[in-house]
Amino acid sequence: MTAMHDQAPGPAGNASVSTHAGRKFVQVDFVADVVCPWCYIGKRHLELAAALVVDEIDVGFTWRAFELDPGVPQEGYDRRDYLAAKFGSDPARLKAMAATIEHAGAQVGLNLRLDRIRRRPNTADAHRIIHWAKPGRGGEKGQWMASELLFAAYWQAGADLGDRVLLAAIAGEAGIEPEFALARMEQGTDLDVIRAEHDQASAMGVQGVPAFIFNRKAIITGAHPPETLARALRQTAEQRHHPA
User: Fold this and answer.
1) Which of 79, 104, 172, 185 has the most crowded Cβ, counting Cβ within 10 A?
2) Is 64 strand, coil or helix?
3) Structural domain of residue 32, as residue ranges?
């Protein structure tokens, strides 16, 4: 985890919540990948942080794509082989890592089932589903819903997010026509958008995920607890209303 640091301001994203006159507002760009367990946990932490400041601040969420390993082939890898190559094949170490993740998830109500996961997919298609959810279900709220469906499918059900038919079905749950999503995946539509979001996050200093960008200026990386994120929201809101 790293401390908050400032970045040059960029164009503001759209809010996922309505604002009220006179209330403070903070836009949070959530930079994440759906195969990152700490991103799933960090997403829940962010939602809890927003609840902690609900009487003070309106908070908008925007999903920003980040591919942890864009070199994974379209067909993906066997997850056991992938983990062994990345972390070693010591069963005790891998079991301890899984237990740490599952325990952290349980603390925020997530029933993570790493034992069900068989594949480590390329996530470009999953990110495109999230991107396409934006117009059809209320802007960033649609993206937030789609990301939740994808996280749950992978980390709770062990679904193969490299399976385009399955992704199209998830797209349908997010309000996107499955046939539309499947056709666009096959055509390679908007892959450049996903790559651009990844590159933009990297240019802003994001080297790992989850990352939280507050009003396109300050960045926190890591699955920090809700209280830490709530403090960052308050600090950012004060800076916006009382600039130095």
Assistant:
1) 185
2) strand
3) 2-70+123-241
